[in-house]
Specification:
The structure is a homodimer of 713-residue chains. By secondary structure, the first copy, chain A, is α/β, with parallel strands linked by helices. Chain A has 24 helices and 7 strands. In chain A, the strands form 2 sheets. In chain A, strands 5-4-3-6-7 form a 5-stranded parallel beta sheet, sandwiched between helices. In chain A, α21 links the parallel β3 and β4. Chains A and B meet through α2, β2, α20, β3 and α21 of A and α2, β2, α20, β3 and α21 of B. β5 of chain A pairs parallel with β2 of chain B. Chains A, B: Keywords: Membrane, Transmembrane, Transmembrane helix. Chains A, B: This is APC family permease. Chains A, B: It is found in: Membrane.
């Protein structure tokens, strides 16, 4: 694989180091950080008291070689992980075999396992390399499926100006074809320049700065969510057009489809990649068949267009209307960026194979799009409620039923596949953002099945909400569509212009011109879509992009602050060297039961200064408790706080904070007696006092919280 | 106050000791338990290592006398509790003054304070003693308000057999009057025998056993929830009868009323008790006025009944119909038990004043009930939709509008008051049950405002759900009503029969006969209601009572098991004496950041054997981490678990469990590095790993969990 050129040597090291490995969650340290660590360590070495080393451990070194008894895994709600094999000294390998689950609470892990399959080993992250003939259908489903709704949304804007205006679709389609070719060629340049991963987020971040990168990412995120919602809606529409009696359950059907996509992707459907080839080819074949039949029919009547059904004009034909139709038609281009995101999955030479595939894809798109728009004009098809124009065209064109059914079925299938593409790309985008600390760290995590479960869940929930809010009406969702895609296109191509002017590789002038043309055309569509459809819903996307960028910047700010606060530095306070920590142990005792006695015994066994605190609601209870305490033997100093307002948590916290203010040099260890109740459904019977105390005490400076659980049934 | 007789000395001590004090949550210990404690303590005294006493503490003894600086209370989400005044040595009093809140997160406590008022001191639990003239209206609102819907439900059963059947209301009312007098006299006996608290739960538990007591309590719980739902529904009906344009918002209105009752009761409206006198007297006056006007009108036409509006019969007059009408009319008696629950609130001699008040109440009930039924018959009133019969009667009888308005307003008011009675009784009943460990312990807790907030919340939620499910239709709720009340009546009176035959005080034979008569009559109503209305909804109550009893028994079983597991015993295991605890400290380290270094330093400073564990997803990361570790200086033995399936929690838990199985004598202290993040809204950015680890480890035997928080912004 050819490495990306980095002529000025200024590239941030992360981009090249990004891999989808499970260890991505655990960051590497720089040399400087390692040095600081060493400095910190040397301060330990100067300790006046020797830190116990491993030799003194009662840790059986044979543990690694032993296979513990199968009654392991008693801790609840977890799949019991098998056992340990020793490999090197001081190293164990959890083999990941699952032990037979002992009874009840395993239900959860069992359901999980049946639905999602067993956990996969980290080493199972494989790169499936694709031939061009496989890559084409897998990566093009999103793009090609767009012709199932792109022409329709264009026509449904035009028809507002009466059926006469429908003929405007031909010139608009001409302009769109120019746009498609320009963007396609433009992306060919990007692939050449960024053969590892040419996603808009990376390209825009690197060349225009992080804010623009985030804007592109936000646009793409909106786009992926919309892709799922729109594709599912269009797929469901294709079904209800063919089988109108299913129309009343359209929304549950769509939600079910999203749920299936969710489950399938959580399970990890990577291996099924090449199965995806079939529906895409089937769809291409179906459309070409439609075009062929239509051409023959039109030729028979001398290419005279049939008149479309009369529709009254509600708007005049104006610049705004044409621009809106143009922006709507541009939604046929969603998905063109798929190849550039996925260059590394091709067989070597990757970038060359990817470019060839992209060329094929765009050619197919141009043929299918222009063919469909022309045929719709010739056959006099106009948008109607309850029926997609593609379905209408099929009904008008095909002489026999089975061909129409085939068309509708393959349309529905490729639309669902297109939704699936978003399930691949959205989590990957969030992974890159999380890697740059612009998204929550949890998006770095590979789930049990080595997929980014959190990203997949986020996408599903977002798409399902959108689908429900818009009642599954495709046309209502399309206005929101073009803005996000073309924002990403524009920023990515602009980034490439910047790239060429900086890098100046071979043919850089030609590449720069091509990318500049792509950027300008994309920007025109972007502005057209954003302005022309602002009130029709595009404002949601504009606001959404702004919001995502602001949130991402806030997240980055927070992570940076936390990083600054947690990165090791040579001397950071009073608790950095074990020999300097002074202890004081506090045991809050509510009643003298076994759980408190265990906590007291544990606290006393630490051998540090110790006292107990009791919070009493009134003097009478105070007396009673004192009597219990002295019956026990008064082994530990007892402080009683009488709190007439019965505020246990606040009183204790205030007390400990006062203690800390008086003696900030002391580390307070609060030893909390706690009941560990094995059955979850009886836990509410015991209140939440330990949890509330823990939450409150965690906020106090200089306090360490120790829970001593007593196990009860 | 006269103590309850306890001639056989076999009474459980709790009943007499039950008080609504804040210390009820903290149980007393018996002498035996104190002795066991002493035995446990003596084992400590034999310690080979001296437990540090207070003298060695770095605890400033002046803390108590100091007023800490006002920057106290930094811990979030808590009302900052003021400060400490020293009283005795080793005793502090949290005065409960609230410090001025420093900024933002105090919003929650402020809203709370505005809605509910400031926290009250525990000593503010006062017993308001009532004169009879005050006690009568306060305690009778529930009972007397029942006549607002009791006659109506009876008529609405009878009218099913046509308007001719309405005249059957007169003989049925006669039987009901006999029932009322019998139950009233029967309760007089109960009050004499149980002057402290004569609630059905206590009486039935003590005389018939806990199961019957629980059945009575379950019946009453259902009844209280129904009282709130029915009273609110009837109150809203009274309003919409007068102002029909409010009918569409009847349900939101009812929910709002329940919310107001909830807020008012959480705030604690005890002091307003005597304000309650007014509406009750106003209602009594209104009904008597109605009866007077009606009597005059009827007398003018020689007491000839007006014919009711014609209604077609949908059922034949049969035994079943009459029985169902009887059971429906019996719902007029709900609330008669209120006095017996509240004997101690009367001025001394409490039981005598309570009895007198009960007599007045029942007399008023009989007069108002019979008067209304007769007047309804004379005025030819029949149930109609959208109008209560009381409202109809008012419209027919009163010559002028204001009198009708007065009647409706006072009806609505007393019905809301009746709902309020349930808000007093329901939490108290749950308190008694919780005190006997038949209900969750949280019902023992007095809230900030010295009311049983949890009981009040439970009642409100239950009533609101019921109100919504039944769409606020009073008549739909009434069939569920009688079963619960008369179950409690029957069990309580049966218990009294048992009581007299055991105790044999003065006049015991007469008392026994009276109670037996009450029990038999109540049982007849119970069976009538349960059988006659089983399919109409009474099955819900029957099932509910069974369910509550089963749950209560389960709760008791659990508490008993926990009590057995936590009560101190002379020697309970390896962790009972501090000198016998052997330590091993484990620090799970994900990355070598400041938070891990703090945890390592803390763990090392404990001076116990120590090792660190790192869980690595693959060998590569393993190597990387080892390098970091040796850069730091390799001060602590490091175990690396390679977990290719990336199961961090399960791997660590399995490892620790294996360790425990090998060396069960060692107490494992797991020192968890944790970030304490002050702003809650950024917490999701950091995952839940520490919380998940804590949950999993808490289930392991022999493991103590220590959180070392590092504070970050």
């Amino acid at each position: 694989m050819r490495e990306r050129e980095a002529p000025d040597g200024k590239e941030p090291p992360e981009y090249t180091a990004v891999t989808f490995k499970p260890s991505a969650e655990l960051p590497q340290l720089t040399e400087h950080e390692l040095e600081v660590l060493g400095e910190v360590g040397r301060q330990w070495a100067r300790a006046h008291r020797r830190v116990p080393r491993s030799d003194g451990l009662p840790l059986d070194p044979g543990l690694g070689r032993q296979r513990p008894a199968p009654q392991l895994g008693r801790f609840s709600r977890l799949a019991p992980i098998g056992m340990f094999r020793s490999q090197a000294p001081e190293e164990l390998v959890a083999t990941g075999e699952q032990l037979p689950a002992p009874g009840r609470l395993r239900a959860q892990s069992r359901i999980r396992r049946v639905l999602l399959g067993p956990r996969l080993r980290g080493s199972a992250v494989v790169r499936e390399r694709m031939r061009k003939l496989v890559g084409l259908p897998v990566l093009s489903s999103d793009l090609l499926s767009s012709v199932a709704y792109g022409p329709e949304t264009m026509l449904s804007v035009l028809v507002l100006a009466g059926s006469g205006a429908l003929r405007l679709s031909l010139p608009i389609a001409g302009v769109l074809v120019v746009l498609m070719i320009t963007v396609g060629v433009s992306y060919r340049q990007t692939i050449r320049a960024y053969p590892r991963s040419a996603g808009s987020y990376l390209v825009a971040s690197e060349n225009l700065g992080d804010r623009f990168g985030l804007a592109a990412a936000a646009g793409l995120m909106m786009d992926y969510i919309l892709t799922v919602a729109v594709s599912v809606a269009a797929g469901v529409n294709a079904i209800t057009s063919a089988l109108p009696w299913l129309a009343p359950v359209a929304i549950p059907m769509g939600i079910a489809v999203i749920a299936v996509l969710l489950a399938g992707n959580l399970r990890g459907v990577r291996a099924a990649g090449r199965l995806f080839a079939a529906p895409t080819y089937a769809f291409i074949f179906g459309i070409l068949l439609l075009l062929g039949f239509g051409a023959v029919q039109a030729a028979r009547r001398g290419f005279a267009p049939l008149p479309p059904p009369n529709a009254a004009a509600t708007q005049a034909v104006g610049v705004m209307l044409v621009l809106r139709a143009f922006a709507s038609g541009a939604s046929s281009m969603t998905g063109v960026e798929a190849v550039s995101d996925a260059v590394p999955v091709f067989r070597p030479p990757e970038w060359r194979n990817a470019r060839t595939t992209l060329t094929w894809m765009v050619s197919l798109l141009v043929v299918m799009f222009t063919g469909l728009v022309m045929l719709m004009y010739l056959q006099g098809v106009a948008p109607r409620p309850n029926q997609t124009v593609l379905s209408e065209l099929g009904r008008k064109t095909f002489p026999v039923g089975p061909l129409y059914d085939y068309l509708q079925a393959s349309t529905a299938l490729i639309l669902l596949l297109a939704a699936n593409t978003a399930f691949q790309d959205f989590p990957r985008l969030l992974f890159f953002m999380a890697h740059d600390r612009y998204a929550p760290r949890s998006f770095l995590r590979l789930g049990d099945r080595l997929v980014f479960s959190n990203g997949i869940l986020t996408l599903s929930v977002g798409a399902a909400l959108l689908f429900i809010v818009f009642h599954g009406r495709t046309r209502a969702l399309i206005p929101l569509y073009a803005v996000g895609v073309f924002l990403a296109f524009t920023l990515s191509q602009t980034g490439m212009v910047r790239h060429w002017s900086r890098v100046r590789g071979p043919h850089w002038r030609r590449s720069l011109v091509i990318n500049a043309a792509g950027a300008v055309l994309s920007a025109i569509v972007l502005v057209t879509a954003a302005v022309g459809k602002f009130t029709a819903g595009a404002w949601v996307v504009v606001a959404g992009v702004l919001l995502v960028v602001l949130i991402a910047l806030g997240i980055r700010r927070h992570y940076d602050a936390v990083w600054a606060a947690t990165t090791p530095r040579a001397a950071w306070g009073s608790t950095d060297r074990p020999q300097e920590i002074r202890h004081l142990t506090v045991v809050p005792v509510a009643r003298l039961d076994l759980s408190s006695l265990c906590a007291l015994a544990y606290a006393a066994s630490l051998g540090q200064p110790l006292f107990a605190v009791h919070i009493s609601p009134d003097d009478e209870e105070d007396e009673r408790f004192r009597r219990q305490w002295s019956s026990w033997g008064d082994h530990v100093r007892l402080e009683i706080i009488v709190s007439p307002s019965r505020a246990v948590v606040a009183s204790l916290a205030s007390y400990l904070e006062a203690l800390h203010l008086l003696r900030p040099d002391i580390t307070l260890t609060v030893v909390l007696p706690e009941l560990a109740i094995s059955r979850w459904w009886v836990r509410p019977l015991h209140g939440h006092m330990p949890a509330r105390l823990r939450r409150a005490l965690r906020g106090l400076p200089g306090v360490v919280i120790t829970s001593v659980p007593l196990h009860v049934p």
